[in-house]
Amino acid sequence: MKKSGNILIVDDNRGVLTALQLLLKPYFDKITVLSSPVTLPATLREDTWQAVLLDMNFTSGINTGNEGLYWLHEIKKQYPALPVVLFTAYADIDLAVRGIKEGATDFIVKPWDNGKLVETLLNAAQNAPASGKKTATTPASTASSMYWGESPAMQQLRMLVEKVAATDANILITGENGTGKEMLAREIHALSARHRKEMVSVDMGAITESLFESELFGHVKGAFTDAHADRPGKFEVADHSTLFLDEIGNLPYHLQAKLLTAIQRRSIVRVGSNMPVPVDIRLICATNRNLSEMADKGEFREDLLYRINTIHLEIPALRERQEDIIPLAERFITRFCKQYGKPALRLDNAAREKLMLHPWSGNIRELEHAIEKAVIICDGAFLSAGLFQLQRRNEAPEMPAASTLEDMEKQMIRHTLDKCGGNLSAVASQLGITRQTLYNKMKKYGL
């Protein structure tokens, strides 16, 4: 008998899960069980599924069925074509009928009849759209490029993201440079109900103070010399979507009040206008700085910090998740081999050891650049240790080795960054340039 693809079963009773695995083994290629729906969104993304059997109650002592309906809605938002069969007690049949009205394919009553249960699930899987075998679990949004890895810290972060992504809570993402804060923001947006519109990203460190209000809030025609037409700001563009403010710690103190006002009032006023424009956004901010310490020093508004920090997500540094270094490197190798038309390359043992021992002060971004360079210059079938010229942060750059003025400038900025512990204001002061100029040069050189 031909089997009917993959089925995912979600029920908090492990005895029920074991019994269903044994019963359904002859009928499905793959049977995956979850005792909690918390990791349901992540599990759905890991494979293609032909049916989901979803219990309606998970919290002990609560039998309203609302949990099941909530997760039904979450599945249908991301995978509209995926058949969902509800698993319910006899007393909750009315709720199950409501679930069918809201997108479920069918329901099964506990205690179940084996023959009826098998028939219901097979019909659900086989009656999926013809393309369902491949697309039933293709999200409505773009597929995620987020790599979670296997480290406990990242798995814990992943579970938290799965919980908060579906809400509209404001999120603050912190972590060192190069850890992937914007990628995490995009993952959260992709998992949210706002995924149908593009996330709007703003680099706060790259916006000049004079253009801050125009960029974020927009302007009307004639508001200033070059305002030749009305122009919406980032808040309006992100209406009913997610607004991502990167490097929020670089926003000057006197401009923070204007941002706070827009967040509190849920409306903006374009430059040159007096008319408030309501906006519905989900706000995600990111920084590599300690905003609490900045608030204590009077460098960041405490009331703004409370507003943007409903949920705090900390991305661990790459050196704190060593088990993810080689898998990440291999992903980059595959990508750059395709990009540069190279045959499939592999790391030799010495190269693996070298990558594992390096502290990766630049985190994932530094690893990505190192792999790209190695793939470009590699002539053999293996990437050897000699192809990776890795410099530790505490090693002072050899200034005479620079061959151009740009190389010297890059090395001087990197050296001063190390010396000042990443404090951009101190770095700019020592180099005798403005913080904006410093930020532009760091962008240019990938620092």
UniProtKB/TrEMBL annotation:
Transmembrane segments: none annotated. GO terms for biological process: phosphorelay signal transduction system; regulation of DNA-templated transcription. Coiled coil: none annotated. Residues 147-376 form the Sigma-54 factor interaction domain. InterPro entries: AAA+_ATPase (IPR003593), AAA_lid_NorR (IPR058031), CheY-like_superfamily (IPR011006), Homeodomain-like_sf (IPR009057), HTH_Fis (IPR002197), P-loop_NTPase (IPR027417), Sig_transdc_resp-reg_receiver (IPR001789), Sigma_54_int (IPR002078). The modification 4-aspartylphosphate is found at D55. GO terms for molecular function: ATP binding; sequence-specific DNA binding. Signal peptide: none annotated. Keywords: ATP-binding, Nucleotide-binding, Phosphoprotein, Transcription, Transcription regulation. SMART domains: AAA, REC. The keyword Zinc-finger does not apply. CDD domains: AAA, REC. PANTHER family: ALGINATE BIOSYNTHESIS TRANSCRIPTIONAL REGULATORY PROTEIN ALGB, TRANSCRIPTIONAL REGULATORY PROTEIN. This is Putative transcriptional regulatory protein, ZraR-like. It comes from Bacteroides stercoris. The lineage of its organism: Bacteria, Pseudomonadati, Bacteroidota, Bacteroidia, Bacteroidales.
